[in-house]
């Protein structure tokens, strides 16, 4: 027996939760299915807990900057308030009852369990089968990827999910993977007194970002006593007597704990994709501008491969809602996707990197300015490292990308997201007024450096 409804949402990450809620509020019969916690990775194990860790870590760093600026300080770190905030405020001790109630109050029928497609517009969860008149929305997200390194699988390694539940920090930590997640967690723990080593296989940490950003963060980490080993291969990882050993070509590292932050694996394998003619082994689902994968099938979030960010999941969710409610666009436009790595200095980027723009065959001009020597940077002094880098499509006279690294880099970025999204002519950016002495005023210098 199958129950007929309007829409079934499989996976209730930020986007799925939003789709289910909005469609139910619009009067549709909606079933929302999640096998774990409503809200997904972001509130329980990812964005929010890690940003709470970094808030504490940054407070410690600012305290340590007092002697250069404002007197004396003696800073003693304690993880207790961080763990308490994450458990009490962020995750309600990893209990999603509030989110479930919110969903049900909106009119969604919630089912806890693993959903699986069983042919077009049909989803099986446990012993229930749902048929969706309008269709099925997938938002199953990703799980931590664990690289096939000899020995690793048999060790008690951590992922971001273990890090979020920590009640005390270890003495030493090896972080395998220097992407945004690895970099953020490495700096957070290091500032809480943990001896941290980041091991990265690629030639540099924060690989997809501008090389200047990787260097800036690498140098900042070095000054804080955080070791970064890039361009290295791990041959084996072992665990014995309470210690991890990581064998590299020319040395063996040891630490109390080991965190794997080596990318994400899409939750697509057990979703019954084969029953609708799709490949369960795919890394992402191909979607059109309305996020349709097939007739009556939509996907949002990390599994679309358009950027694993909560804001992407929410952006796509709004489009799916419009499409299902037969409303007009705008449909998906990925030219101005912002992303922020919340290290200190913070790295915010939008659109294309210089390399991506060159690879796309654009005729570009690049403008770079130093934040430390801007008026505000000079006033700020301790912790003022950073830069603004602009990538202009010289033929059209508009920015196609930007990177801001520095204090509040992700906030400074906002003006440049508007510029890339709105295709604001560079000449206009050169003629506007920038408040003095703000960090964002350095955008004017970066525009001048384009030669505009
Ligand atoms: C450590 C870390 C820090 C991050 N920080 C940020 C940040 O600062 N800013 C930012 O924008 N992004 C950040 N991200 C990324 C962000 O967490 C994700 O992009 C975001 O959660 C959106 O993911 P999603 O919507 O694809 O689904 P997810 O959040 O992954 O949720 C998917 C849901 O689907 C459920 N599910 C999976 N399979 C099934 C099934 N078969 N049946 C039923 N339910 C299923 C899961 O239980 C889960 O609840 C971070 C990620 C990590 C790991």
Q: State Rg.
A: 23 Å
Strand fraction equals 15-25%
What is the CATH topology classification name of the largest domain? Answer: FAD/NAD(P)-binding domain
Can you identify the CATH class of the largest domain? Alpha Beta
The mean pLDDT is: 98
How many domains is the backbone divided into?
A: 3
Identify the overall geometry. globular
User: What is the assembly state of the chains in this entry?
Assistant: single chain
Number of helices: 14
Helix/strand class: alpha/beta
CATH homologous superfamily grouping of the largest domain = FAD/NAD(P)-binding domain
Topology, number of strands = 22
**Main β-sheet: number of strands, strand sense, barrel status?**
8 strands, mixed
The distinct ligands, each listed once, are: flavin-adenine dinucleotide
Gap from first CA to last CA:
67 Å
What CATH architecture of the largest domain do you see?
3-Layer(bba) Sandwich
Low-confidence stretches: none
Classify the helix fraction into a percent range. Answer: 25-40%
Verbal overview:
- The protein is of the alpha/beta class.
- It has three domains: 3-39 and 96-144 and 265-324, FAD/NAD(P)-binding domain (3-Layer(bba) Sandwich); 152-262, FAD/NAD(P)-binding domain (3-Layer(bba) Sandwich); 338-449, Enolase-like, domain 1 (2-Layer Sandwich).
- 32% of the residues lie in helices and 25% in strands.
- Strands 1, 2, 3, 4, 5, 6, 16 and 17 form an eight-stranded mixed beta sheet that branches. A five-stranded antiparallel beta sheet has the order 18-19-22-21-20, with helices on both faces.
- Helix 1 (14-25) links the parallel strand 1 and strand 2.
- Bound molecules: flavin-adenine dinucleotide.
């Amino acid at each position: 027996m199958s129950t007929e409804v309007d829409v079934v949402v499989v996976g209730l990450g930020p986007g799925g939760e939003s789709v289910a809620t909005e469609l139910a509020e619009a009067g549709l019969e909606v079933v929302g299915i999640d096998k774990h916690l409503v809200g997904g990775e972001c509130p329980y194990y990812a964005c929010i807990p890690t940003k709470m860790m970094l808030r504490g870590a940054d407070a410690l760093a600012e305290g340590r900057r007092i002697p250069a600026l404002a007197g004396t300080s003696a800073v003693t770190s304690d993880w207790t308030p961080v763990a308490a905030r994450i458990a009490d405020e962020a995750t309600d001790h990893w209990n999603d009852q509030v989110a479930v109630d919110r969903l049900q109050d909106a009119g969604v029928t919630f089912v806890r369990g693993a959903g699986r497609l069983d042919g077009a517009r049909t989803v099986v969860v446990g012993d229930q089968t749902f048929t969706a008149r309008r269709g099925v929305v997938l938002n199953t997200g990703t799980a931590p990827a664990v690289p096939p390194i000899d020995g690793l699988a048999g060790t008690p390694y951590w992922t971001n999910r273990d890090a979020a539940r920590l009640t005390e920090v270890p003495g030493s930590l090896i972080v395998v993977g220097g992407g945004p997640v690895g970099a953020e967690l490495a700096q957070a723990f290091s500032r809480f007194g943990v001896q941290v080593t980041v091991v990265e296989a690629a030639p540099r940490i924060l690989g997809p970002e501008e090389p200047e950003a990787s260097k800036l963060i690498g140098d900042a980490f070095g000054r804080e006593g955080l070791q970064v080993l890039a361009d290295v291969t791990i041959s084996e990882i072992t665990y014995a007597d309470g210690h991890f050993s990581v064998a590299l070509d020319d040395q063996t590292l040891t630490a109390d704990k080991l965190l794997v932050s080596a990318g994400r694996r899409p939750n697509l394998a057990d979703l019954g994709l084969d029953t609708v003619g799709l490949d369960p082994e795919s890394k992402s689902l191909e979607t059109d501008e309305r996020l349709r994968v097939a007739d009556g099938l939509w996907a949002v979030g990390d599994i679309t491969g358009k950027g694993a960010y909560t804001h992407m999941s929410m952006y796509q969710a709004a489009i799916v809602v419009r499409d299902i409610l037969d409303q007009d666009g705008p449909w998906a436009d990925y030219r101005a996707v912002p992303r922020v790595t919340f290290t200190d200095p913070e790295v915010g980027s939008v659109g294309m990197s210089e390399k991506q723009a060159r690879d796309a065959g654009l005729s570009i001009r690049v403008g770079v300015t130093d934040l430390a020597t801007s008026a505000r940077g000079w006033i700020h002094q301790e912790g003022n490292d950073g830069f603004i880098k602009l990538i202009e499509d010289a033929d059209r006279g508009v920015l196609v990308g930007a990177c801001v690294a520095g204090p509040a880099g992700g906030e400074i970025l906002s003006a440049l997201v508007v510029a890339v999204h709105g295709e604001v002519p560079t000449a206009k950016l050169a003629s506007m007024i920038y408040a003095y002495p703000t960090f964002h005023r350095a955008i004017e210098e970066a525009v001048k450096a384009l030669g505009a």
